[in-house]
Every structure is written in structure tokens, then in C-alpha cells.
Amino acid sequence: MLIIGHPLIPFKPLYKVTKMEDIKKTEPNCTILIDFDNKELVQYGKAQDISLALHVKSIKDACLANALGVKFIVVDTLLSKQIQNIATEYLFDAKILLQIEDENAIEKAAEDSIDGVVLKKGIV
Hints:
Elements: E1 2-4, E2 14-16, H1 20-24, E3 31-35, H2 39-47, E4 51-55, H3 59-68, E5 72-75, H4 77-89, E6 95-99, H5 106-111, E7 116-118
Parallel strand pairs: 1-7, 2-3, 3-4, 4-5, 5-6, 6-7
């Protein structure tokens, strides 16, 4: 299980961006996190061959994100198990990350066989 943002585990954070100018402020060779709904930024990131993590809110968007070749698909609790099951069934290359509030949710994510979790400190 991947754990991003826990103080005991070294990690490379995801850089949340909402506009083009934000990308210029990120570290080289980092993974940027974009909301899937921001199609223009997603297309720009892909065109620039930037390592992407996409925050999705539906199964359809998760499937499209994987087809785009993103590194991580970030999901909320509501759909996490369903999306992980689909990712496992279809052998997604992208890893599914459950966005969690605190480390107590790690156990539930592990029980649901989620690829990994990302805590608040794992997103800058």
C-alpha cells in the first residue's frame, strides 16, 4: 500500500494545481494533482508530458483518467472501493489513491484493498 503524507514515511508530495501558472511553481519531476473537470489543464499536462494525478468523482472519469496514462487516480471515500475493483479487474496502470483526513482511515483503505492513501500533508 502506498502512503503519501504520513510523517513517518518519506514521500514525494502531489502538487495541487488549478491554473497554468501554478505548474511553473512546482518542483521539477514532480506529480501534479488536477481535478479531472479541469479539461484544459489536463490536456496541457499531458501535452507537456508531466506526471499527473487526477482527482475524479465518477467511475467514468476514473476509466478516462487511466486511459490518459496518469500515474495516480485520487478518489474520495464514496466511490473508492468501486473504482478500485474496476481498476483491479481491468488492470489499470494508474494507482488508486484514497484521499483521507487522518491516518485512522488507513486500516479501512487496506481492508478495501485500495492501492494507497494520500493524507492532507501529502498534497501541497
